[in-house]
Amino acid sequence: MKIAMVYNRPFESGGVETTMYNRAKLLKEYGYETDFIFSDNTSQLNMLEKWAEIGNVINSKYCNEYYDFVLYDGIYNLPNINGDKKIQIFNGNLIEGNEKYYCDIAMDEYIAVSEECARQVKERCNIDCKIIENVLPVEEIRKKM
Fold first, then answer.
1. What is the pLDDT of residues 33-91, one digit of tens each?
2. Cβ atoms of 76 and 58 closer than 8 Å
3. Buried-exposed string 68-95: b where 16+ CB fall within 10 A, e elsewhere
4. Parallel, antiparallel, or unpaired for β 83-90 and 109-112?
5. Which contacts (CB < 8 Å, 24+ apart) does range 105-109 have?
6. 85 has which bridge partners?
7. Alpha-carbon torsion 138, 15, 93, 67, what sign?
8. What's the burial of 45, exposed, middle or buried (CB within 10 Å: 0-12/13-18/19+)?
9. Contact 72, 88 (CB under 8 A)
């Protein structure tokens, strides 16, 4: 099974990029192949190098792979990556104070990382989200996979 994790913004000081890294690290431990797809050329080299320890790092402009799952870890101007199932993850830190919610790619599923995050997405975008908490014990994650 091949999974793409798509990140669309300039890298920050840790937040979402680290969360994605930790998700991919866990997926790798379970035997999944993960590629990191980025589309912002101002991305910090040290984060790209860190990601490369886990999987392939590909600029979205040059990505012609096909994936079983495509996880979009952002909210706007998302690159369309080929895949069977496209999932958009709303991270709590992207919800607070951000009024621009749109995506021109049809998603198969929407996931929020907390109940508060899901409530805000429902209120602002009229989208129902499945809730998978950002921090879960390994046994709980296994049950949800």
1. 999 998 766 666 777 788 888 889 998 889 999 999 999 876 667 788 999 999 988 87
2. no
3. ebbbbbbbeebbebebeebbbbbbbebb
4. parallel
5. 105/72, 105/78, 105/80, 107/72, 109/85
6. 69
7. negative
8. exposed
9. yes
